[in-house]
Design goal:
With about 160 residues, the protein is mainly alpha-helical. It contains ten helices and two strands. About 60% of the residues lie in helices and about 5% in strands. A two-stranded parallel sheet has the order 1-2.
């Protein structure tokens, strides 16, 4: 990842940066984003999912995990080699509205460097196993790949199953 981005994210303290209560505008922004992504879903599925995603518990749980990012990355590095099984990594090459909503001083150029860093990382991950492949997926960001590019997700599943 770009050094500048690592430094910016490393300095982020969710305990200090987050207000006691998430502003109603932020909740509405996320509600609208999820609503757009799931607009074609049946209402009885869509509405409970949106409400869960914008609930204070869900949002705070997400921020609480930020504290453990480095610990998680260390565990991943120390986990040892992956087993010899087929692996397809899907790498989103876009910047979606979810990413734009949480940007804090990150330029588009820096985000493009991040995407390129992820591509290199996922290329290396895929290359670490005999049957690994990294597929670049246009038209979606990391948070929306499963909504916007269902075709790419389903194709990867089919390929893994040999169909």
């Amino acid at each position: 990842m770009p050094q500048q981005l690592n430094e910016m994210r490393g300095a982020f303290d969710p305990d200090q940066a987050m207000p006691d209560k998430l502003p109603a505008e932020a909740v509405q922004l996320y509600r609208d984003l999820f609503g757009q992504e799931m607009a074609d879903w049946p209402k009885e599925i869509r509405e409970p999912l949106i409400e869960s995603h914008v609930s204070p518990e869900w949002i705070w749980d997400g921020y609480a995990l930020v504290k453990y990012r480095n610990q998680f990355l260390d565990e991943m590095r120390q986990a040892g080699p992956l087993p010899d099984v087929p692996l397809i990594v899907l790498t989103a090459t876009g910047i979606d509205a979810f990413k734009e909503a949480v940007l804090i001083g990150e330029s588009e150029a820096l985000l493009r460097e991040e995407i390129e860093g992820k591509r290199r990382l996922y290329d290396a991950l895929a290359a670490s196993v005999p049957r690994g492949e990294n597929r670049l997926v246009d038209g979606a960001g990391h948070a929306s790949i499963h909504w916007r590019r269902v075709d790419a997700v389903l194709q990867a599943i089919r390929d893994l199953l040999g169909r």
